[in-house]
Write a structure and sequence with these properties.
Layout: H1 5-14, H2 16-35, H3 38-46, H4 52-73, H5 76-84, H6 91-114, H7 121-137, H8 145-176, H9 182-223, H10 236-252, H11 255-264, H12 270-290, H13 296-311, H14 318-349
Amino acid sequence: MTVSLSAFLQQLVTSPPLLITVLLTLGVILVNGWTDAPNAIATCVSTRSIKPRHAIWMAAAFNFLGVLVMTALNATVAQTIYKMVDFGGDPHQALIALCAALFAIVTWATAAWAFGIPTSESHALIAGLSGAAIALHGGLSGINGGEWVKVLYGLVLSTLLGFALGWLCTKAIEFLFRRADRQKTLEPFRWAQIGGGAAMAFMHGAQDGQKFMGIFMLGIFLAGGQGDAQSFQIPLWMMVLCSLVMALGTSIGGMRIIKAVGMDMVKLEKYQGFAADLAGAGCLLVSSLTGVPVSTTHTKTTAIMGVGAAKRLSSVNWGVVKEMLLTWVLTFPGCGLIGYLMAKLFIWIF
């Protein structure tokens, strides 16, 4: 099942709830590009391989390509997010609950950005949707355990694989270039670091763009009274729209998060920054191809930790890591509770 642009615009004009849902969805995508995408370019900025403004525009462009290309090739992540919770039953109330979940995500992500902490919009999305679905159904019957368990797989995968690949990539580069003149490798690794940052931005768009397009499709189907649609095809116009909005969010920048991830957690050299980007992009590629939704923030930061640990454990600023872990741990109950309360409030009002 797919939706043409003309049919979408006609439905948008005649359905105020859909208009609100679309605006909130695009708002979440904008916030994601604004607060989450800077993680992709944090290392290439911190190693001074590229100027911050140039890095932000590069990330915006490759976020756009990631959303467009990967969704066209493999949209399994979008399908997972779409089926993770059950908004069936009364389509009107379901649409209101979805709006509440999106409102909760924007609130949580903006608050985290204000404190300069790289939260995960992926986890906020999952938590907000789950909280709203529980409120809608009055219990856990609104949660699809078979799809939700993939989120837990993603937590483990992004943590272990990101850290392990970061450590392995660093050790491999150090072994291959052990006899090379350090000064002569600086320029090649500067360009490699820029390429790694571009790859991370591409995979960020591939992962997070799909998640939000799955929600976009859910909103359209609910507004049309089709809460039981089981499969769909993401139309090209939606890929272009979502990728442009994410790119716009990225272009706004996020120097606080770049500093927290790329500068405060570990002091990296250019080859180490390249190793972190290579590890993070590889982990995201595996996750995207297998349809497992993971956090790009989680993946990138654990890859950086693995790179730092390859040198010595003391080179990692564990205080910053602890702060990030605390944020991730709080995201599920915190954003989930906001989603639950907002859903109850919205359903009561509307």
